[in-house]
Amino acid sequence: AFFESLNNSEAVPLATYNPLAARDYAYQWYNSFNTASYPNLEANWGDCTNFVSQCLKAGGYTFRDNWYVYKKNNVYPRPENSTQLDYSWTLAQPKSPWISLDEFCGYWYPRVRKYQWSKQTYQTRHDEIYSMDIGIGDVVILCSGVSGVMTFGKHAMIITAYDSAGKDFKLSGHTNPRKDYAL
Prior knowledge:
5 helices, about 180 residues, single chain, alpha+beta, two-stranded antiparallel sheet
């Protein structure tokens, strides 16, 4: 698992990010889509990064640089290809960190404190990791890799709750709708 502690970013002061507002947004929309403001990308691309970006925005992060999405019209709330996406939405080109996990990681990694553990390390040290400065509103990027070296992100979710008895984080996200899913 790869953790990003977004609420400790030097680029965005802590006072501007409300992790509980991000969590509340995740709870409201984990099983549906806010197409009044954002595209539903589950048809072709998967919606995990789009959903995490929405949660961060709801928590107080503002559109910046190339991390943004703007609605042009209501024609394609659930675009099925790039042409439809471009017709109804404005995103950074050619790949947007709002919706692309690789671009999201490339955009946020230099701006935040991050932690990286293999699945085995997390399983054996989860109680120690649980006590670190990681919490609600932080983003979890699940990665694949070899010998402890991350190769690329596979899925993004947001921490929405704690399992204090099991010393684990609970995650919410899209593509497969999840609410308080154990890490």
